[in-house]
Description:
Elements: E1 2-6, H1 16-31, E2 35-41, E3 54-57, E4 60-65, E5 88-92, H2 96-103, H3 105-108, E6 112-115, H4 127-142, E7 147-150, H5 153-163, E8 167-169, E9 190-197, H6 206-216, E10 221-228, H7 233-242, E11 249-253, H8 257-264, E12 269-272, H9 281-288, E13 292-295, H10 299-308, E14 312-313, H11 319-330, H12 334-347, H13 353-385
Parallel strand pairs: 1-2, 1-5, 2-4, 5-6, 6-7, 7-8, 9-10, 9-12, 10-11, 12-13, 13-14
Antiparallel strand pairs: 3-4
Amino acid sequence: xxxxxxxxxxxxxxxxxxxxxxxxxxxxxxxxxxxxxxxxxxxxxxxxxxxxxxxxxxxxxxxxxxxxxxxxxxxxxxxxxxxxxxxxxxxxxxxxxxxxxxxxxxxxxxxxxxxxxxxxxxxxxxxxxxxxxxxxxxxxxxxxxxxxxxxxxxxxxxxxxxxxxxxxxxxxxxxxxxxxxxxxxxxxxxxxxxxxxxxxxxxxxxxxxxxxxxxxxxxxxxxxxxxxxxxxxxxxxxxxxxxxxxxxxxxxxxxxxxxxxxxxxxxxxxxxxxxxxxxxxxxxxxxxxxxxxxxxxxxxxxxxxxxxxxxxxxxxxxxxxxxxxxxxxxxxxxxxxxxxxxxxxxxxxxxxxxxxxxxxxxxxxxxxxxxxxxxxxxxxxxxxxx
Length: 386
């Protein structure tokens, strides 16, 4: 079976979307015998220079396309020239590719499924316009897809009315090896936050929390690791300075996986006070490292904590109460710390890419079977007309 994954950004770009597509395609190729390939854009958002048109990433053939327009809705109509050999198109995220391939389905005729990856409501910007688009253009585009796969239960809530019976839930997996057992073996007063520097992730909310923790114990510190997006490292440094904790925050820009693993070895906690997450990949990866997550009370995080029994849900707008909860956890003994660390690693073993890839494989088979059935029915109708 030949599956073409279509996604706006891919390696060397770093983020939850990119990591998910790479892990899924890699698992499909190496474990399931699926010929998974990737089509993506030839420039990274926020960076200059073009990437090679053809590439191999983690054993995955990658074709990169030129594009124009805004990073919010990059236009790449040349994608139509690269669909011929695919049995199934797997579109990732709700963007130009999602709408364009739906509109041109009469031309390419390929069965399609789409994964939501949070939709496009990651921030409150242009919310009214987004809702209009979602209830009109997105609603119409959904009709062209055999399945809409919600990557989280919060995504399922968002898409349930528009997708109806097409909707199914397959939560993302994580690389079970990459950060496994990486956290400090002994308790530390260090929190790490990693991922994109994006407004909706509210990284700056960690600074008042850190200030309150340091008023209780000056040993507390924070590591902020990731790549710049719609926030820069300089902006975050300025906000840390305003909170009075700049000397206790270590910023690491664009760390490699090995470097990030080493940074986790200094920490006992993972902090994310995000206003929105489609799935919360970084929190699950942090738990695989043995870190205790300190999270805002959004739906994906609440579900993660409830299902695993691991983590602290805190009020992102109330650093006083949040600091009391974190300091209380840090005051527990070494034996409790060791048990909690092991428990975190054990609980996320269910987020395995092989299982996720297998479930997607079943959807592909269904989509292809439905396409064959539809073709046969169409042929019968044509014979009747003749």
